[in-house]
């Protein structure tokens, strides 16, 4: 007779090991990283430029340059570009973030060599048409006006503003003033100085073959200026108020953001801090979820996370709670932080967190795209090739004493707290 | 080609096994043949609330999540108008823990009063977060009852109103479990690094002893054919006017489904599509516009939705869409345009098969539709669409009398602010 109250035996499972990548440096200075896997006839081709917000001289330059790249070349209109991509069922986007801008092509591998010349044309001869620029500015302003109706957006904007300062590139959001001031010349300047192939990292993964590698290695991408080094600007942090309430009359919920900056990703404490953050609010069984959702029912979800950027790491807790329970939620968050400082995490809980982290890592490294993302992370954050080996070793070896000591070292005042709600 | 084997346990549980020995992971996907269409109109939102309760402990195991996390696994679930689907991913060595957990909650729940009380609150917060406290969040709460007058697709899965969730009691929970949660009403998919033999052995061991339950016979009213255009005007504190047009279209299993699906792609998939090119780029009436289909098991909806540029009037925008539809219905499409949407559909299919979990979910859904092997027929069905079949569907589906339109008006206060902002940009 089956005894259903007994759990099946728990088996150890292996760590992740990154499949072999191949690297080539091209004549134009760009590095190409290949990861081959022909399970599906698909391909992802990415060119990563040091063209995130960090490099802006004029606010908004990174966003508008990235978006406008696809809106026309010397010889093709935005519509003609869209027609070609859609005809082959492909997608081409340029997305930017705090540190980088990435041009990404997804397609069936058999169409890749047909589509590559379009990528070259877009990068070498963008037209940045005035008409498309005006339309894009209008769409962006309107989209932001919609975003600003969302409590979570407002909370994050004010939270990062209070941590980094209004003009710091790591502050979220965009305002109408930025959109009003940016000019086409700013876009052209940003393109010329930041979208340079000699400073790019290229990542190609999926169903590769010799024709595809040959096409990539023959890419005729040009730099418009001849300086070789990337000039990395400096930005000063200008903190604002520690506690802020953003009034949203009539809001049924309050969005809370609670946190501070943490050490950079290459700091010796970083991996252990990621375990601490998971324990606090990084999975369904975390302390915050158990307390605020599963015990009190104040929210649909609450999380704590580490958001690493090149020059800063943001630790923050985020949630949207019943408007009447915002104060009580903050009190409970404080209690959970104190508890991690004052008491050892029970061994069984720590084991669960560690296994969850490793299992989740494995399941998010399953496809060739996931695996390339793992590898890309090492390249873009300058992490050593054996990083994942030491990552897993650290996860396995970290003790609850280590975590208590870290909680006392890092969960310290001042924290920034923003509540956006009625 | 997705390989799989299937068998049925003595208690009626249908099992599909998809081996993928290249993955270190294993997946269990349990689909229950119940969705919000099976609710009573006075108890809407219940199938989804019930889904939450499936995580509040089962008959022999007090916590569902903890034992799974302990072995490196993760799980979630979703409820739709058609189905409720539970899934977990775990390092393959520990797949038996998944069988233990999933089978116990098919056998019986803890029916904890406290669990119900907490999950009512959680779902109410979910309702607020996603439907009431977001700009345009209530669109489907308004659109469904406009498009469907009889069929239970007329309410959203989250529920018609918060009070229905507040009023749910434990007797309802027990009755719902007994009616819908049993082997004969479920489909189990085992996928990943598990052999067919092992999957069979574990299915027999853990699910085999569960009483089969009573086969649920769905008997819900069918929606009569819509014969007149419908319209609803809504006023809300949002920055931009928005327009939503929905058209009744064939069910997922209907022979005309793929033609109608491609009609939506011609209209509004991507930047080269007709609506985007004409209305966003040329006429500059819309800030964004797209078209898609719901893909529901019973006759569903083709949806056109867009936000308008500031200063554009909803009637003008609506007329512009109607004109594009009319031209489509009059002249059809070129061979090149057909090839384009087929290529787009093919790419989507290939990309959707990359994730192991996705393959498992699609197998379960195809099995519920009638044949798991339909997963391997999709591409051929898309390729079989002709210019003629597509035009015929365009003429049937896009008939203005088959349309319900939601005019979502930005309340003046909010709209003014955006106009100011846009003015500022022009001046600068």
UniProtKB/TrEMBL annotation, chain A:
Pfam families: Peptidase_M16, Peptidase_M16_C. Residues 36-165 form the Peptidase M16 N-terminal domain. InterPro entries: Metalloenz_LuxS/M16, MPP/UQCRC_Complex, Pept_M16_N, Peptidase_M16_C. Residues 182-355 form the Peptidase M16 C-terminal domain. SUPFAM superfamilies: LuxS/MPP-like metallohydrolase. This is Insulinase family protein.
UniProtKB/TrEMBL annotation, chain B:
The keyword Protease applies. Residues 14-130 form the Peptidase M16 N-terminal domain. SUPFAM superfamilies: LuxS/MPP-like metallohydrolase. Keywords: Hydrolase, Metalloprotease, Protease, Zinc. InterPro entries: Metalloenz_LuxS/M16, Pept_M16_N, Peptidase_M16, Peptidase_M16_C. Gene3D superfamilies: Metalloenzyme, LuxS/M16 peptidase-like. Belongs to the peptidase M16 family. This is Insulinase family protein.
């Amino acid at each position: 007779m089956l005894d259903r109250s007994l759990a099946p035996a728990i088996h150890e499972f292996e760590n992740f090991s990154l499949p072999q990548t191949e690297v080539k440096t091209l004549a134009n200075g760009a590095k190409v990283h290949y990861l081959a896997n022909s399970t599906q006839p698909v391909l992802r081709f990415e060119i990563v430029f040091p063209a995130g917000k960090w490099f802006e001289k004029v606010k908004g330059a990174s966003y508008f340059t990235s978006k406008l790249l696809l809106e026309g070349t010397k010889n093709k209109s935005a519509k003609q570009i869209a027609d070609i991509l859609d005809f082959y069922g492909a997608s081409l986007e340029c997305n930017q973030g705090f540190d980088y801008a990435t041009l990404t092509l997804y397609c069936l591998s058999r169409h890749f060599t047909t589509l590559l010349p379009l990528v070259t044309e877009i990068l070498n001869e963008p037209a940045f048409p005035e008409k498309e620029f005006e339309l894009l500015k209008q769409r962006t302003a309107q989209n932001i006006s919609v975003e600003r109706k969302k409590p979570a957006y407002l909370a994050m904007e004010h939270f990062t503003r209070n941590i980094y300062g209004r003009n710091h590139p790591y502050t979220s959001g965009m305002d109408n003033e930025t959109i009003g001031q940016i000019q086409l010349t700013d876009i052209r300047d940003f393109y010329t100085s930041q979208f340079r192939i000699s400073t790019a990292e290229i990542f190609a993964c999926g169903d590769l073959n010799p024709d595809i590698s040959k096409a990539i290695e023959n890419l005729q991408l040009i730099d418009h200026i001849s300086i070789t080094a990337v000039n990395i600007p400096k930005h000063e942090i200008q903190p604002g108020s520690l506690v802020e309430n953003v009034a949203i009359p009539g809001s049924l919920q309050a969005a809370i953001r609670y946190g501070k900056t943490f050490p950079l990703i290459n700091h010796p404490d970083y991996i252990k801090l990621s375990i601490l953050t998971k324990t606090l609010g990084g999975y369904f069984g975390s302390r915050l979820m158990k307390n605020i959702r599963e015990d009190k029912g104040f929210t649909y979800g609450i999380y704590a996370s580490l958001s690493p950027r090149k020059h800063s790491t943001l630790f923050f807790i985020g949630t949207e709670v019943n408007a009447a329970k915002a104060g009580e939620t903050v009190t409970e968050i404080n209690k959970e932080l104190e508890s991690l400082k004052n008491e050892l995490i029970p061994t069984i809980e720590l084991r669960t967190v560690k296994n969850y982290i490793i299992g989740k890592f494995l399941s998010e490294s399953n496809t060739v795209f996931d695996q390339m993302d793992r590898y890309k992370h090492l390249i873009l954050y300058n992490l050593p090739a054996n990083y994942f080996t030491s990552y897993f070793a650290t996860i396995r070896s970290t003790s609850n004493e280590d975590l208590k000591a870290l909680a006392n070292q890092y969960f310290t005042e001042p924290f920034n707290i923003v509540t956006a709600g009625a | 080609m997705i390989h799989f084997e299937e068998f049925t346990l003595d208690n009626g549980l249908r099992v599909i096994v998809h081996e993928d020995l290249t993955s270190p992971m294993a997946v269990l996907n349990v689909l229950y043949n119940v969705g919000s269409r099976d609710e009573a109109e006075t108890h809407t939102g219940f199938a989804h609330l019930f889904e939450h309760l499936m995580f509040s402990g089962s008959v022999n195991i007090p916590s569902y999540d903890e034992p799974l996390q302990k072995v490196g696994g993760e799980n979630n679930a979703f409820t739709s108008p058609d189905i409720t689907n539970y899934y977990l991913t775990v390092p393959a060595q520990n797949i038996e823990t998944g069988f233990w957990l999933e089978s116990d909650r098919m056998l019986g729940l803890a029916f904890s009063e406290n669990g119900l009380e907490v999950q009512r609150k959680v779902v109410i917060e979910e309702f607020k977060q996603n439907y009431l406290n977001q700009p345009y969040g209530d669109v489907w709460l308004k659109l469904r009852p406009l498009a469907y007058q009889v069929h239970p697709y007329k309410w959203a899965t989250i529920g018609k109103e918060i009070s229905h969730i507040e009023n749910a009691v434990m007797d309802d929970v027990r009755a719902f479990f007994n009616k819908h949660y049993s082997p004969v009403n479920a489909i189990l998919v085992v996928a990943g690094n598990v052999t067919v033999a092992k999957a069979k052995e574990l299915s027999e061991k853990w699910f085999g002893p569960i009483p089969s339950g009573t086969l649920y016979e769905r008997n819900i009213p069918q929606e009569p054919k819509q014969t007149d255009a419908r319209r609803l005007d809504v006023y809300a504190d949002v920055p931009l006017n928005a327009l939503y047009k929905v058209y009744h279209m064939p069910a997922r299993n209907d022979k005309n489904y793929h033609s109608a699906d491609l009609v939506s792609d011609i209209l509004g998939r991507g930047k080269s599509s007709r609506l985007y090119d004409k209305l966003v780029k040329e006429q500059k009436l819309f800030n964004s516009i797209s078209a898609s289909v719901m893909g529901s098991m019973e006759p569903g909806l083709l949806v056109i939705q867009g936000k308008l540029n500031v200063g554009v009037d909803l009637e003008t925008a609506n007329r512009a869409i109607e004109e594009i539809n009319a031209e489509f219905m009059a002249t059809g499409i070129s061979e090149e345009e057909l090839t384009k949407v087929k290529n787009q559909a093919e790419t989507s299919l290939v990309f959707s098969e990359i994730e192991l979990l996705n393959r498992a979910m699609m197998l379960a859904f195809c099995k519920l539709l009638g044949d798991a092997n339909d997963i391997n027929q999709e591409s051929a069905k898309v390729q079989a669409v002709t210019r003629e079949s597509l035009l015929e569907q365009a003429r049937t589906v896009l008939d203005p009398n088959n349309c319900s339109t939601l005019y979502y008006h930005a309340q003046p206060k909010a709209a003014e602010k955006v106009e100011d902002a846009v003015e500022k940009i022009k001046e600068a």
